[in-house]
Amino acid sequence: MTMILPHIERLSGYAQGEQPPEGTNAIRLNLNESSYPPSPEVIKALKSIPEETLRRYPDAKCDKLRSALAKHYGVREEQTFCSNGSSEIISLLMKVFIGPRGQIAIPDPSFPLYHSAAASYQVECIGIPTLDDFSIDVEHLIDSSAQAVVLVNPNAPTGLLLSMENVERLVRDFKGLIILDEAYIDFASGEASAISLIDRYPNLLVIRTFSKAYALCGARIGYCFGNEKLIAALEKGKDIYNVDSISRELALAALNDQSYMQATTDAIKRTRNHFSEQLTRQGFTVVPSHTNFILCKPPAALGYPTASELYEILMAQNIYVRYYQQRRLREYLRITIGTDAEMDAVLLAMSQILGQ
Ligand SMILES: *Cc1c(COP(=O)(O)O)cnc(C)c1O
């Protein structure tokens, strides 16, 4: 007798890609982590956690952080939800809004975690192919009969940003729930966030995270904004103490140091633009990025390594980037933007490998 539910037994688990062995000083450009430390205010907050914080249960709704986020983004507390990383929200969506045999639609390619979260709740995930240049097929998403449409904006792993006009069109014309994942929005140019739309559209949920622009992926804090009814439903569905007492203090300190976040994201954007230009000079095709990573296609000339070979060669040189086997992506590499020194090391390795 098996004790494991068949749909769980069938799961392959979330594929993170090859990781460097612990203790090696590899250049890690494969998980979109930050190469910059979190704000010094975060480290200060960490060092001044009183013992009582550990001894007491946290308040269940994460009030202090929730109210700070609401204030910062100009929404109400009842429109704000805090979570154990935004991955928790991605799972909660399946549990609270979709349910077994339900369906979600998501552009293809996009963030694979939506597929694995869906599978573990017996939700069907329908891929809507992006156009040849990876841009989002908005009409196709609007026409979907799924209960929810997921839009990662800027998208991962392409880095492309869908215009606000198109985002609003999708939210307005699609009849079900819109899950808008803005994990990388702080690296985008202009006023790209759709948070201001939540008052007008009761079917919109905007997901954010402290993992990327605030360099806190190890602390696991995510949040989302939406209509009061959606937020109240997430509160009912979550584990009671989903955000630990320490992480919420760290997130608060990070949020309160906007100038540091601005300075580090600006630095990453500058590095990204320079790195993209240099790769283009080496013959790569670079998808224009609004994130802290780039998707690029190596030059395909006789005798040059393929993307998958390049991935292996770089790994042998202790440089870890991301390679995807799937059809639309197998000629590409996804490279996280690190410090200038790290990206110079990548450029040097590339030019040596390509014999330029
Ligand atoms: C990194 C990422 C997340 C963040 O996950 P956390 O659980 O908050 O660390 C969410 N969505 C996308 C598209 C991401 O790339």
TrEMBL record:
NCBIfam families: hisC (TIGR01141). Keywords: Amino-acid biosynthesis, Aminotransferase, Histidine biosynthesis, Pyridoxal phosphate, Transferase. Homodimer. GO terms for biological process: L-histidine biosynthetic process. Pathway: Amino-acid biosynthesis; L-histidine biosynthesis; L-histidine from 5-phospho-alpha-D-ribose 1-diphosphate: step 7/9. It comes from Brevibacillus reuszeri. Its EC number is 2.6.1.9. GO terms for molecular function: histidinol-phosphate transaminase activity; pyridoxal phosphate binding. It catalyses: L-histidinol phosphate + 2-oxoglutarate = 3-(imidazol-4-yl)-2-oxopropyl phosphate + L-glutamate. CDD domains: AAT_like. Pfam families: Aminotran_1_2. PANTHER family: HISTIDINOL-PHOSPHATE AMINOTRANSFERASE (PTHR43643:SF3), HISTIDINOL-PHOSPHATE AMINOTRANSFERASE 2 (PTHR43643). Residues 25-347 form the Aminotransferase class I/classII large domain. Belongs to the class-II pyridoxal-phosphate-dependent aminotransferase family. Histidinol-phosphate aminotransferase subfamily. The modification N6-(pyridoxal phosphate)lysine is found at residue 212. This is Histidinol-phosphate aminotransferase. Its cofactor is pyridoxal 5'-phosphate.
